[in-house]
Amino acid sequence: MTIWNLGSINADLVYRVPHLPAPGETLSATAREVWLGGKGANMSVAAARAGAHVRHVGAVGRDGAWMVERLLEYGVDTRGIATRDGASGHAVIAVDPAGENLILLHPGANREVSGETVAAALEEAAPGDSFLFQNETSAQEEGAAAAAARGLRVVHAAAPFEAEAVRAVLPHLDLLVLNAVEAAQLEAATGRDLSDLTVADIVVTLGSEGCRWIATARGEVVTIPALPVTPVDTTGAGDTFTGYLVAGLDRGMPMRQALGLATRAAALMVTRAGTADVIPDLAEVQAMRLG
């Protein structure tokens, strides 16, 4: 099967800082690094490294050829990535010694993906494939509707969170992934508990506490505990989790097993500094030792 990922592609400019800056504070960084990033690119790399066939759909500017080449090196099919005249997306990321981060995002070409581009890419999709998307590109609603009409599993990672963007795609979703803050925001915006939504499966990531799976049709809630690790950098951990989760489901794993795999991958990811370039592969995740 294939995972079709309508996703952002960013250059991540990472600055190591003694602490996350307060409003109005000028702070000197201790180091600077440039990585391939963007939630979409991260999830494509994670899913590919988990053994899935991934077709990325998105856009970069004329300064973004190196990012497309890097995705290709990591096993991602890049034929669905268009080149636009403007700048590529990029993120400025501050990371403190505890691994917590602060992110400023410029969408650039990610917001220039057309519905026609997505529809053209999905012409090759088949029932049983998966369609994954986040909230860092344009054409999300068109893509979700087209994927659902073709019989694909439609998965939305609702970040960065915007209530109206999630509302627009809810009717098309089979799986919704969001963190605890985003879950609370969605419940406030809809006036409904997550368990009352029409999405079949909802996964809420809880950071160091693991994740919660809500199977709405069965009224079942399952908690998967986190693994004990010492974090170095939490950037990209959630994207790694989602990419591995969708890859596991694509390979036919039951949800509980796919969540366990995703939890291991995210735990290993937080022990590394960087984003897409350091996402672990399946062999590393399976060989991971705890304690």
UniProtKB/TrEMBL annotation:
ATP binds at N179, T205, L206, G207, S208, E209, G210, G238, D239. GO terms for cellular component: cytoplasm. It comes from the Bacteria. Pathway: Carbohydrate metabolism; D-ribose degradation; D-ribose 5-phosphate from beta-D-ribopyranose: step 2/2. GO terms for biological process: D-ribose catabolic process. GO terms for molecular function: ATP binding; metal ion binding; ribokinase activity. Pfam families: PfkB. The active site is at D239 (proton acceptor). SUPFAM superfamilies: Ribokinase-like. Its cofactor is Mg(2+). Keywords: ATP-binding, Carbohydrate metabolism, Cytoplasm, Kinase, Magnesium, Metal-binding, Nucleotide-binding, Potassium, Transferase. It catalyses: D-ribose + ATP = D-ribose 5-phosphate + ADP + H(+). Its EC number is 2.7.1.15. The keyword Transcription does not apply. Requires a divalent cation, most likely magnesium in vivo, as an electrophilic catalyst to aid phosphoryl group transfer. It is the chelate of the metal and the nucleotide that is the actual substrate. It is found in: Cytoplasm. Substrate binds at N10, A11, D12, G38, K39, G40, A41, N42, E136, D239. Activated by a monovalent cation that binds near, but not in, the active site. The most likely occupant of the site in vivo is potassium. Ion binding induces a conformational change that may alter substrate affinity. K(+) binds at D233, T235, M269, R272, G274. Belongs to the carbohydrate kinase PfkB family. Ribokinase subfamily. Homodimer. Catalyzes the phosphorylation of ribose at O-5 in a reaction requiring ATP and magnesium. The resulting D-ribose-5-phosphate can then be used either for sythesis of nucleotides, histidine, and tryptophan, or as a component of the pentose phosphate pathway. This is Ribokinase. It comes from Roseivivax isoporae LMG 25204.
